[in-house]
């Protein structure tokens, strides 16, 4: 860019030199005056001095103008017909572009005085050489107006260049901020993925731990149930590997896992089936007509149920009761399970990362989570609003959701424990709510 500007300045200086030589060779513009001096070597040298300094107008604008003005005055004083001071006009434009906007600057004052004094100096030189100045006063006023106009044009050009520079800097700043926001979003996404990985891995490891213990205890006494427990371990481990693969893919590609369609994330039957297969007796009661849940609410529900049933399996006595109430504005989840009178060592405090994650998911949706033991019963109660979500809020919260298990038909969900008549407790109400 700088080299291009230098080439342009050289071209402007050469063009001004050529035009000045043409004017001097033609003995001025219009009818030649016999008293004017013909072009000779001194005239060529002065013509060069009055134009070629324009090649340095960007680096030394004031010095270039002063040299041009002095050479132009010398041409006029030696009776050369310099009817059009091309170099001086270009120099005035440059000074306006460089110093026009500077306030309280000695360089601006010097530049302004140099341009303003040029035409009066020309008039003084003409008067000294015997030219009738009043007769050419209109010409002098015309060139004074040209110089003033070029100064203003140069100043406007400077303002435009500064505006363009400001806009370019603003665009760069916006781009930097956008990059910063993208980095923050990527960091937040990685944090979310790590949290989901912790939830999934913790849940799967707990199920595997329970099933491995059951398989060890039942290996000799009930080989069939031992094999069933080993099959659950295999299924849970395979599902965990698939989920970890998906999360690692998201981390490597810097792309968040795409949300499933609303409703698929809930997968109540899948959660019940998995934990019943792990040995937990679940009685489920679904109340209200289930609407098309936003993905964020459905995913939070799925995670809360998984964590609640995992806690019931690890710390309870082998059973749990689930109540889901689909209201007009919110979904309430209540999970209760009996706990032994004297909990095993290390099982008394459930306030680990899992419960913190459940509380955070409920809070992100504007809901709440209440947990605690009351006598020999541990109770979890979550409230997840969804009635007031706008499409934009739902889209934003759906971005925080992760691919959940595929939804399965409630009527086909197998249960390890059946109620009288061959139906798992709560299965009929689940199917009715799903419909």
Please provide a written account of the structure.
The protein has helices at 2-25, 41-49, 61-77, 86-99, 106-128, 137-218, 223-253, 268-277, 295-315, 353-364, 391-399, 427-434, and strands at 281-287, 319-326, 330-338, 368-374, 377-385. It contains 12 helices and 5 strands. It starts with a helix and ends with a helix. It has a 5-stranded mixed sheet. 34% of the residues are buried. Residues 254-265, 344-350 and 389-435 have low confidence and may be disordered. It has 2 domains: 2-131, no CATH class; 260-435, Histidine kinase-like ATPase, C-terminal domain (Heat Shock Protein 90, 2-Layer Sandwich), CATH 3.30.565. With 435 residues, it is of the alpha+beta class. The protein is rod-shaped and about 130 Å long.
Would you give the CATH topology of the largest domain?
A: Heat Shock Protein 90
CA distance, first residue to last residue: 70 Å
What are the secondary-structure elements, in order, as H or E? Answer: HHHHHHHHEHEEHEEHH
| Amount of helix | 55-70%
Work out the helix count: 12
The counted number of beta strands is 5
- Structural class computed from helices and strand pairing: alpha+beta
User: What is the 3D form?
Assistant: rod-shaped
Provide the CATH top-level class of the largest domain.
Answer: Alpha Beta
